[in-house]
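Much of the work behind modern protein science is quiet bookkeeping, done one molecule at a time. Below is the pair of lines this work produces for a single protein:

***
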Amino acid sequence: MTTRELIRRIGSCARIAAVLEVSGWPKPGNVHRTIDHPDARYEHFLVGSIALGHSCEDAALRGVMAASKTVEISEIQVGRFVRKAVSDIVASHSGGNTHLGTCLLFVPLAAAAAKTTVETGEISVAALRRSVREIMNSTTSRDAVDVYEAITSVSSFHELGRAQDVRAPDLYDREAKKRILSEGITLLDAMEQSSSYDTVARELITGMEISFEVGYKELTGTYNTTHNINTATVHTFLRILSKTPDTFIARKVGLKSTSNIMEAVQMGRRETMWISETAKQILEKGGLTTEEGKAFLWELDEKLQSLGKDYSPGTTADLTAAALMIGLLNGLKF
């Protein structure tokens, strides 16, 4: 496989993974192929899924360069390509922030996939995860600034809250960039400081533990049993949700009572634990493989949709997309 072919393949895996994730139905509470939200349609997510691919290809090229020692691993520029991906998505449609968390996971995955292929001649799950860890451990303060800019470009102050942590610069503080650069706060540092209340951040400091250990395993196991990619996608979403309360929902719910993001997420998790418990029950009833499971699943979808967009498990969707990309990079075909 030539370098050009490798880069194109990785970009395709990213696009297809994002398309499969949003097309999975019914993923309770999310936009999916039969449900739109007032501010974001299914088509917005499809277009965003295509738009993010260019930055994943750019990140893959830097992964190739790092593997061949043309650049240092710290020069892959994860933050730059996350910011570019978010910018490309915003320019591609009017549906707002459709893929921020997905971009944060896809960019290091793309770079890691290319680096791993050049170094070992293949993409194994273990080697891919090791490369993700190595790339995140080598991120810089410039990466952190770029990611901060990506986040603030699509998020309001109210949506983010305040961390109440003197180590973490406020995203909307005009001096934040100066502090990040002067104190050498890397992207890994920033994600570590956010990891207690944001699951995507936690993924980035743990080598994407949930995406690999929960999501990918459920995806491949269910697909090998059912040979149905939609069933595999939805069950992956449910499995992740059953084990990890969605921090997007928890943040939205908790911030109605406090601006302290850590307190908000803790409060929101307590108030929305029933969602994870219901997801577990749906899987126990067979999910999409049984009539009882289907009925229970549609009931949860209807309930969450009726509660409004604050009850859309967006973080779970991001991790499901990452699991799909891992699967596709490892040869999943359907």
